[in-house]
Amino acid sequence: MTPIATMRDISKTYTDVPVLDRFNLDIAPAEKVVLIGPSGSGKTTVLRTLMTVEMPDWGDLAVDGVTLHFGDRLGKAPKTSNAVLRAYRSKLGMVFQQFNLFPHMTIEQNLVEAPIHVAGMRRGEAVDLAHRLLAQVGLSDKVKAFPNQLSGGQQQRVAIARALAMNPKVLLFDEVTSALDPERVGEVLEVIRDLSAERSVAMLIVTHEMGFARQIADRTIFMEAGRIVEEGPPEQIFGEAQNPRTRAFLGKMLHP
Amino acid sequence: MFDLEFLIAHLPVLLSATGVTILITVLGMALSLCLGLVLAVVQLYAAWPIARLAYVLAQCVRVSPLLIQIYFVFYVLPFYGLTLPPFLTAVLIIGTHYGTYASEIYKAGIRSIPRSQHDAVVALNIPRWRAWWRILLPQAVIPMIPAFGNCAIAMLKESPLLSVITIPELVGVGRQLAFETFKYTEVFTALGLIFLVLSSLYSVLTRWIERVTRVPA
Amino acid sequence: MNQTMSVLDIVVFVLPGLAATFSILGSAVIVGLALAILAGLGSLSSQRLVRVLCLTYIEVFRGTSFLVQLFYFYYVLPLLGVSLAPFWVGTLALGLNAGSYGAELTRGALLAVASNQRDAIIALNIPRVRAFYRIILPQAAARMILPMGNLLLEMMKSTPLLALVSIADLLYRGQMLIALNGQAPIVYGVLMVIYIAFGWPLARGVALLDACVTRRWGGAHV
C-alpha cells in the first residue's frame, strides 16, 4: 500500500550536533506508529521536522501527495513556495506537550480559528464542527471557557479537538501527557484511544507511557541517537526484542 | 560648525564631573539596595500596621517625581534646623527614591521563592537566619540582578536632577560650561555621548555580574 | 507680599500649571505611543535599513538622560534654525523619550509572544497576517499593560523637568509662588501631594487592569 506520509533521508543538526542523520520513515494510511526511546534520541525532532515546525536541513518529506525537498548544499532543491508549504501542512495536525492553546481565545474560538480562516469554512458550520468535536472529547460544557480555566488534561483534550478540526491525514502527538498531573494522564490517553478506534487518521505518537504504546500501536519503533534501532509490531518489541539496547531500554522503563 | 578642539580642551572638566555622577550613582545604588531590602522585609513580614505604613510611605515616594523630592528635602530639612552637606543630601534622596523601586524588586523576588525551598529548610532544621541568609535570599537575589541593573541605569540618567541643589555632576557642569562659552551644540552632544557610554558600561557590568553569579546549568 | 498663604490659596495659584503639565503629558503620550508602535514594529522589520534606523532611535534615546534630551531641544535646536514653542519642546522631548522605551517594550512583547505561539501557528497553518493581528497582537497587548502603565507613571514623574526649560508647569508655578512668599517647605509639600494624588491611582489602576486580564487569560504572562 502507498504510504500516506514518508520521510526520506531527513537530516537535522542543532548547532553542530546532528540530531537526525538520514532518517527514513513510512507511515501507511490509518497506521498508528509509536516512537519510543531515551530522551535526546531525536523522537521529538522526527515529529517537529515532519510538521515543519523545524525545517530539516536535508531530505524529502511527503504527505498525501504533497512533497517538500530540503537541502541546497548540492543544489538539491529550489526554495519551497509558500503555497506548497501550506498545502503540505494542511495534511497534518499536531498536539504538543504544552498544549499551546491560544490563551486569549475561548475554547470555541480556539477550535473555529483554523477551519474558518485557513480552510475557509462558513462560521456556522465551523461552530457545529467545534461542538461535535468537543462532545467527542467530553468537554461540551466548556465551549465558552478560557484555556486558563481548564485543567491540564482538559486543555490537552481541547488541543486534540483543535487539531482534529482541520481533518488531517496524519496526527502527530508529541509527549502529550508529559506535562500533566498523573491523575490527568488517563483521560487524555482514553481520548486518543477512542480516536484511533473510530477514525481512519494515521497517527505518529511519541510517548513514555509504555502500556499505552503497546495497546495502541500497529508498529512500535525504538530510536536511539537519531536512528531507528529496531521496529516491529508491539508484541515483538515489547515481548521479544532482538536488539540488546531495545531490551535494556524497555527493562528500565517497565521494571525501574 | 562643530568645534572639536573646544571639546577636547574642556574634556577634563566634563570627565571630572562624570566622576561625580558615577560616585553618586554607586553610593546611591548601595543605599537603595540596603534600604530596599529593609523596606521589602518590613512590608512582607512586619506586624500589619507597620507593614502597611512602610507600604504607604514607599508608594508615595515611588509615584511622585524625584525632582520635587529633591527640592522638598533640600528646603524642608534646613527649615527644621537640619543642615546636611549637599552631596550627602543628594545620595540620601536618590538612594531613597530608588530604594522604593528596589523594594518592589525584592518583594517580587522573595515571593517567587518556591514553597518547596521553605519546606526543605524546615525539614533540614536549618536555623531561620542562616536559612534566609545562605539559602533563600541568594536564590531570590540572582534572578533580580537584571532588574537592579535597570534600576542603576535609570538612576544614572536621573542623577542630573541633583544639579538643582548645586551638585557638580555631569549635566549641571556641562550646562554651566555651555552658558559661559555658548557652545551648546558641542557640550550637549558630548553629554549625550558620555551618557550613552556610561549606560552601556553599566549594562555590560550587569551582564558580567549575571554571568559570574549564574548557577551552571 | 510676604504674608502666609493657606494650602487652598497655594493650590489655586498652581492650578494653571496643572493644566500645562497635563496638556503636555497628554500630547506626549500620543506622540510616544505612535513612536512606540512604529519603532517597535520597525525594529522587527525584514528591511535592514528600517530595522537599523529604529534600533538606533531606541538605543540613543534610552541610553541618554532625559534632561540632556530636553536641553538639546531647548538650547541646541534653535541654533540649528528650529525654534519650537515651549509646548512643542515639552511634547517632543517627552514623547521621543517615552517612545524609545515603549518601542523596546513593544518589541520585547511581540518577540516573546511570537516565539511562544510559533509552533501552534505553524501546526494550524494560520496565515502570517491573520496570526499577527489575531494571535500575537492581543497577547502582546496584554503583556504590555503593566510595563506601559509604569512607563506612563514615569512620564508623569518627568514632567516637572519641563520647569527647568521655563515651561510653566506645576513646579514652575510653585517656584513662582515661593519667589513671592518664601514658603518653600509648604509649597513643595503641596506639590508632592498633588503628584501623589495622580500617581497613586494611576499605579493602582494599571495593576488592577493587569490582574483582571491575567485572571481571565492567564496566558498573558505564560
TrEMBL record, chain A:
The keyword RNA-binding does not apply. It is a peripheral membrane protein. InterPro entries: AAA+_ATPase (IPR003593), ABC_ATPase_HisP-typ (IPR030679), ABC_transporter-like_ATP-bd (IPR003439), ABC_transporter-like_CS (IPR017871), MetN_ABC_transporter-like (IPR050086), P-loop_NTPase (IPR027417). It is found in: Cell membrane. Keywords: Amino-acid transport, ATP-binding, Cell membrane, Membrane, Nucleotide-binding, Transport. GO terms for molecular function: ABC-type amino acid transporter activity; ATP binding; ATP hydrolysis activity. Its main location: membrane. Residues 5-250 form the ABC transporter domain. GO terms for cellular component: plasma membrane. The keyword ATP-binding applies. Belongs to the ABC transporter superfamily. This is Amino acid ABC transporter ATP-binding protein. The lineage of its organism: Bacteria, Pseudomonadati, Pseudomonadota, Alphaproteobacteria, Hyphomicrobiales.
Automatic annotation (TrEMBL), chain B:
Residues 18-206 form the ABC transmembrane type-1 domain. GO terms for biological process: amino acid transport. GO terms for cellular component: ATP-binding cassette (ABC) transporter complex. Keywords: Amino-acid transport, Cell membrane, Membrane, Transmembrane, Transmembrane helix, Transport. Pfam families: BPD_transp_1. It is found in: Cell inner membrane; Cell membrane. One of its GO terms (molecular function) is transmembrane transporter activity. The keyword Magnesium does not apply. Gene3D superfamilies: MetI-like. It is a multi-pass membrane protein. The chain crosses the membrane at residues 20-46, 83-101, 187-205. The keyword Transmembrane helix applies. Belongs to the binding-protein-dependent transport system permease family. HisMQ subfamily. This is ABC transporter permease subunit.
